[in-house]
Automatic annotation (TrEMBL):
Transmembrane segments: none annotated. InterPro entries: DctP_fam (IPR018389), TRAP_DctP_sf (IPR038404). Keywords: Signal. The keyword Hydrolase does not apply. Pfam families: DctP (PF03480). Residues 1-20 form the signal peptide. This is ABC transporter substrate-binding protein. PANTHER family: PTHR33376, SIALIC ACID-BINDING PERIPLASMIC PROTEIN SIAP. It comes from Bacteriovorax stolpii.
Length: 325
């Protein structure tokens, strides 16, 4: 091949538009605010890249639960997913440092600022583990809802509480506080609250409403357990199939929708709390002394989880961010 032919070939290759079709599994049902924003994001990405990048979104758990989606990604049937912290932790355990119970109390603003500051560090770890994080989401504060009134953290120990099996943070919380856990699949919780198999469960306000637990409980403990997060990740190999120019477009659009989704989630959680109040579910407030008790549990959990779920480096970065005004 002479130099002229080589240069022509290189020019033609450089001008080729790579087409990337990326299949993504999502638990959020179509029609929800979250799903609507994801759909708009996918359309905008397709239009802005002139069809070079096409996100095929499978909504409402049609590809299975989060574990199924992650398994399908690992065998190449899917290229991405929008996951909550539990599943993200299986890819990159350091993200779970954000969800250690009793870290942020009621301070959502502090939690979001900390998440935003920690995201570049998390993204490096995702890339080391062969994933590209396109957007990081806050799902919101997690609260206990109960059928019996509890006055403090100690009295929660008497309740039979639904537990999401296989989550190391939940397992450590229940072990550290000596709570009574009843492992159930998420769809079984509603009926179990009706029959008394469980007397309490936990979720962000939008989850409490979406899962209809508000119809089966009498109290909500106005003392956040933890701050729940999520992220939209795709494989590094899928990302590599996108041209550098289109990668920038995708990143910019994903970042824009990250902000919109987080704002929407915050409003949806506020609206859900207002709806819970309007249904005459009693808000139980704990005394300020319970914050100190909670911090003791947090310290115990950190000792158990550091070096096993998340790194000492991740904890150090979190504590440095928390110390900032």
């Amino acid at each position: 091949m002479n130099m002229k032919t080589l240069l022509l070939s290189m020019t033609l290759f450089a001008s080729m538009n790579l087409h990337a079709a990326i299949k993504v599994g999502v638990l959020a049902p179509e029609g929800t605010g979250w799903a609507k924003n994801i759909k708009k994001m996918a359309t905008e990405i397709k239009d802005a890249t002139k069809g070079n990048v096409e996100l095929k979104i499978y909504y409402g758990g049609s590809q299975g639960d989060e574990q199924d989606v992650l398994r399908k990604i690992r065998i190449g049937q899917l290229q991405g997913g929008i996951f909550t912290g539990k599943t993200l932790g299986e890819i990159n355990g350091d993200v779970r440092v954000m969800e250690v119970p009793f870290t942020f109390n009621h301070d959502r603003v502090k939690a979001l600022k900390t998440l935003e500051a920690m995201t570049p560090f998390f993204n490096q770890k995702f890339e080391q583990n062969k994933f590209k994080n396109l957007a990081t989401f806050e799902i919101g504060h997690v609260y206990f809802v109960t059928q019996k009134k509890v006055q403090d953290l100690n009295s929660i120990k008497s309740l039979k509480i639904w537990t999401w099996d296989g989550d190391p943070i939940v397992a450590t919380l229940f072990e550290s506080m000596n709570l009574i856990g009843v492992p159930l699949a998420l769809p079984d919780v509603l009926a179990s609250l009706s029959t008394g198999v469980v007397e309490a469960a936990y979720a962000p306000p939008i989850g409490i409403i979406a899962l209809q637990w508000n119809t089966k409980v009498k109290y909500i403990v106005d003392f956040p357990i933890s701050y729940s997060i999520g992220a939209f990740v795709i494989t590094n190999s899928a990302w590599a199939n996108i041209s550098p120019a289109d990668q920038k477009i995708v990143s910019d659009i994903a970042k824009k929708y990250e902000k919109e989704i987080n704002s929407g989630n915050a409003k949806d959680n506020d609206d859900a709390m207002a709806a819970i109040k309007s249904q005459k579910i009693e808000f139980v407030k704990f005394s300020d002394s319970e914050i100190k008790v909670a911090q003791g549990y947090r310290a115990t959990m950190i000792k158990k989880l550091t070096g096993k779920l998340f790194s000492a480096e991740a904890l150090k970065k979190l504590e440095a961010e928390m110390a900032k005004k």
